[in-house]
From TrEMBL:
Recorded superkingdom: Bacteria
Domain named Cupin type-2: residues: 65-128
Protein name in UniProt: Cupin domain-containing protein
InterPro entries named among the record's database cross-references: Cupin_2, RmlC-like_jellyroll, RmlC_Cupin_sf
Length: 317
């Protein structure tokens, strides 16, 4: 039986060349973090903090104000909650089909199969934490054609293998390997263009609503019977000071704890660690653990558990 593994927020190692838009003006200051599993990074030098995957991946994106992540799509679930800052999420072929602004603690289960992007619209460096479905996170990212074309104009070429090559560093596509083909108009027509009214009520949960729901028991955020009803291969709960289990417990599934506010004391088998906001803990099945707030004041965290559901489509439009 292995022990819990903890990745500290202050020890996260960023990659600034993780994706195809790393040189594109307006997107060239992004920092990508892969916390659990390899995520969907296209860079060979991306640091992975915990290689083991519990049926899903955990990552994060850090961006200064006015920096944006370009339009892309995923085949499996992509869930974000805002750890720091204020963020605008937008979607559609050109990013104009709909949008929503998320504040700290808000969570967005972005539907699969639609193009999406996001930008930090706050006044300071912001961080969003991500949960990606599947052990291999769906096999990569599908970029809108204009993103690939603009990236090539700034020296980055995405190979058909999914690997990124930087011509500014003297890199070139290997012999026999072609560039990633652009999606055809026929293929693009298969990507939904849902409106804000169609997406937000079913895919967004607000922090203060969850705080109220989790006053006495954990709030079910994502799951078959949750606020955001879905079966993406994992389930998400929201816990507060008033809803944390008082006794030691054991989970039969892998469990990831992601502290949002306050400090949490995690105890297991004679060991104890304190989780601060932004820290991530991976706890294997069968380990008896106790979790409780370490200080007075506001305390909240997201808990993610693997399920037997396939990490499949979530868009029900």
């Amino acid at each position: 039986m292995s022990a819990p593994q903890i990745v500290r927020y202050g020890e996260l190692i960023p990659c600034r060349t993780a994706f195809i838009d790393a040189h594109t003006p307006g997107s060239d200051q992004k920092e990508n973090f892969t916390i659990i599993g390899g995520g969907v990074s296209e860079a060979a030098d991306q640091h992975v903090h915990i290689q083991e995957t519990p049926g899903f991946n955990i990552g994060a994106a850090g961006q200064p104000p006015k920096c944006r992540n370009s339009l892309h799509s995923h085949r499996t679930a992509e869930v974000f909650f805002v750890l720091k800052g204020r963020w605008r999420f937008f979607w559609g072929r050109h990013g104009t089909a709909g949008e929503v602004v998320l504040e700290e603690g808000d969570i967005f289960n972005i539907p699969t199969g639609i193009f999406r992007g996001f930008e930090n619209i706050g006044t300071d460096y912001g961080m969003i934490m991500a949960i990606l479905g599947g052990d291999d996170a769906g096999g990569g990212v599908i970029w809108a054609p204009q993103v690939i074309e603009e990236a090539e104009a700034h020296g980055l070429i995405l190979a058909e293998t999914g690997r990124l090559y930087d011509t500014k560093r003297g890199e070139a596509l290997p012999e026999g390997v072609g560039p990633m083909p652009l999606l055809s108009e026929e293929e693009l027509a298969g990507f939904p263009e849902p409106t804000t009214a169609e997406v937000v009520p079913h895919y967004v949960a607000r922090y203060w609503d969850l705080m109220a729901l989790a006053d006495r028991k954990p709030a079910r955020v994502i799951g078959a019977d949750a606020v955001l009803r879905d079966k993406p291969g994992f389930e998400v709960d929201f816990l507060t000071r008033g809803s944390i289990p008082s006794d030691p417990y054991v989970s039969e599934a892998h469990e990831v704890l992601m502290a949002m506010r306050g400090h949490w004391r995690l105890m297991w088998e004679g060991h104890a660690q304190v989780l601060a906001p932004g820290d991530t803990a991976l706890i294997p099945p069968g380990v008896e653990r106790t979790l409780f707030p370490a200080m007075t004041g506001e305390a909240s965290l997201y808990r993610v558990r693997s399920t037997a559901d396939p990490a499949g489509p979530t868009w029900r439009g």
